[in-house]
Amino acid sequence: MSVFGACSQLSYLRLGEETRCYALKASLMDVVFIGCSIIDTYAKYGCIEQSRWIFDKLTNTDVASWNAMIVGYGINGYGKEAIELFEKMHDQGQWPDGFTFVGILMACSHAWAC
C-alpha cells in the first residue's frame, strides 16, 4: 500500500504498473486495502478506466473499495458515474459511510454536469 501511495504522490506511473503486476502475480488483489490503493493510484494518474477495471476485478468489495472508486470518479470529473456507482453500491446492500458522501459531494463539485 505504501508503494502505491508513493507512486501516486511522485507520479511514477510505470512503477505503479509494475507494482500492480506484482500484486496480481502474488494474488494480493483480494486484500481490500491493496485493491483500494491500486484504484486510487490509477485515478490520481487520470486513468479512470484502469481504476474501474481493477474495481470490477475485486472479488471482495467493502465500503472502502466503493469509496475509492467513487472518489476516483469524483476527482476526474465523472459525477454521473460516481452517482451511478453509489446507486449500485446501495442496490448491492453495501451501506455508505461519511467518506462515501464526501466522495459524492466531491464528484458533483468537480463534474461537468451532475
UniProtKB/TrEMBL annotation:
Protein name: Pentatricopeptide repeat-containing protein
Organism: Dipteronia dyeriana
Source organism phylogeny: Eukaryota, Viridiplantae, Streptophyta, Embryophyta, Tracheophyta
Keyword Flavoprotein: no
PPR repeat copies, ranges: 62-96
The keyword Cytoplasm belongs to this UniProt entry's keyword annotation: no
UniProt GO molecular function: RNA binding
Coiled coil residues, start to end: none
Keywords: Repeat
GO terms (BP aspect): RNA modification
